[in-house]
Amino acid sequence: MKMKGWYRKTVSVALAAAMTMSLAACGGASAGGKGSGAIKIGASGPLTGPAAVYGNAVKAAAEMAVEEVNAKGGLQFALDFEDDTHDAEKAVTAYGVLKDWGMQVSLATVTSAPGAAVAPMYSDDKIFAITPSGSSLAIIYRDPDNAADPYGNVFQMCFTDPNQGIASADYLAAHPDLGTKIAVIYKNDDNYSSGIFAKFKSQASANSLDVVYTGTFDDSNASDFTVQLKQAQDAGADLIFLPIYYDPASLILTQANQMGYAPTFFGVDGMDGILTLEGFDTSLAEGVYLLTPFSADAKDDLTTKFTANYKAKMNGEIPNQFAADAYDCVYAIAQACEAAGVTADMSASDICDKLTGQFSSMTFNGLTGQNVTWSASGEVSKSPKAVVIKDGAYVGVEN
Amino acid sequence: MEKKKNLFALMTDKKHRGRTVSFGIVILGWAILEIMLFSGSLSSLFSSLLVPVCCYIVAAIGLNLNVGISGELNLGQACFMSVGAFTAVCLSGSLAGAIPAPLPRLLLSIVAGALLAALFGVLIGIPVLKLEGDYLAIVTLAFGQIIKSLITNMYLGFDDAGFHFSFVDNKVELKQGGKMLLNGPMGATGTERISTFTMGIVLIVIALIVVYHLMYSRSGRAIMAARDNRIAAESIGVEIFRTKMLAFTVSSCLAGAAGALYGLNYSTLVPAKFDFNTSILLLVYVVLGGLGNMTGTIIATIVLVLLPELLRSMQDYRMLIYAIVLILIMLLTNNETVRTWGERMKKQLKSRLKNRRNA
Predict the structure, then answer these.
(1) B235-244: per-residue pLDDT in tens?
(2) How far, in Å, CA of B24 to CA of B358, rounded?
(3) Between residues 75 and 104 of chain B, which touch chain A (CB distance below 8 Å)?
């Protein structure tokens, strides 16, 4: 019996020792690596878990853009995309992996909460980052409540959530023909949705819009909207604003149709993707308006080429705005690197200084907008396009 | 008359050997990691894992006290972490002006988080632990959901005029310079990161001291007696409710402290982080490490937190392989053949050592 305890102790200590050895070994192994002579771009996003659709879209589009940039010769990029499962803790460890790899520039994270967790690290370590789709203010500001004290080297490619809410309220105020009695249904446990709604509400009252009904739902009851729709109908709403993702929106459209209730539906960029949803009758989405920076059916050369390539890469999947934003991010970084003369042998903090200067002064033309500019605090300025769904396709609306 | 033992004997006798190994591993691990941190040879990935691993270890040790020693299934350990985390984040955020130094603020926040979590433990324990059976599992499961929903709907902020609170609908409107402490589903953002690895180790050591002291004490023996045979324990005068309550409260208190450290390690924290999955994950650490085995819990937690990170090179197959490894460990540690093989190896080792000593 005495020996038994001794044995256990030895094994425990050996295990502990082996573990610390593996810590050291791993640190060494990942430090070297792929893509010497190329500027190392790091990124993290949810490749697994419920938000994986966004991470995978961003990853595919970013890879596409990197391949295209590299094929041109000249500037060379290497991309390492790590999984963060839409979790702040995992995003911080993914950041560690990327830093060990030697990341020089970053696409930060795909989603908001993880982005807010890693933003201070990009700031501390002086690595330039631009997030394709992290829309929360907490990604670019240390003090998000006052939109003050920006990190300075973390930029956004997408609109911030507040901007979408304000833009929507302004658009509805300018277009009373769409509907004057407005109902809102939003997801109150989702920070994207409640972030847009908060600003929409204040801007709507500033524009003296008539919001007759506000309904909410959360994860646990995101399948039945008949109650909210009935209440909206009873309140006499002729326009329903849906600052939500397309999954629940498709159910709302279906259930409204079953009730014989046909108001105008108005969505934001999360609505993009509804036409490609499996098992959804797209005829129900006829006449749905949405404000989005990108529509895959736009007829310009850049969009048609991107959509075709993306479909070829992703087994026919139609790119959403996350993908478009990611594609633009890589091209914006390429443009800034060329303009600032960034080369792969520069340190991350030198690159950071050069790119920060470039981004706050340059103008960029991409998939998600023309004449895109950034403020010094990292917020993007581009105009959202209003599109309406006609005959199963997005059609631009003249403003 | 019990013979007085010297310190060495106290550390290595059969009863206390587990304790010595636990402390040994923690202190050895801490020393090695500190040296590696100091010399800069620890990779960024592992440096970023130090604090969360410490947090999970503390919460898992607490859970093991409840599940392993007291024998009550708890499916809501993560929600006690949640209580601790959000308490600490709010306290630290609102005290940032009054106490600029991070260390006293961290200590205060951890203590507050631990106490509030313990209070919730008491409140849940009073009705539930009086019952016989698996009611605690059901109630802690529900409590986890309740806490998550509550925090998801809470809005708390402060400015010059003081604190503002609203529930469900966000009516908090702050003046310029105000700070939102809790922002509904967005949770807490802009938190100052003040947690340190050393504090994590200190918490683990405190957790081990508390748990081992409890285990070796009169109360601890009563807790185990109540677990093994409720009727027999009651018949010899053990107050079942009191003993189970003690274990459950200490367990939730430790989870609260762990959560506080966790919350202050990230600049952002969402309520959805501490959901049912996290509770189950903690339970997995405990079960794989062995019920009632604190050393096992520590090792299992380290291995299972590191595993997905080490499997990153597998890319898409990462979680698949993680699951397979988890199942394999469970099967192997309970497999008769593997166990007999282990016993045989042990015997061989034993006889070989004996031979060498005799030679």
Answers:
(1) 999 999 999 9
(2) 30
(3) none
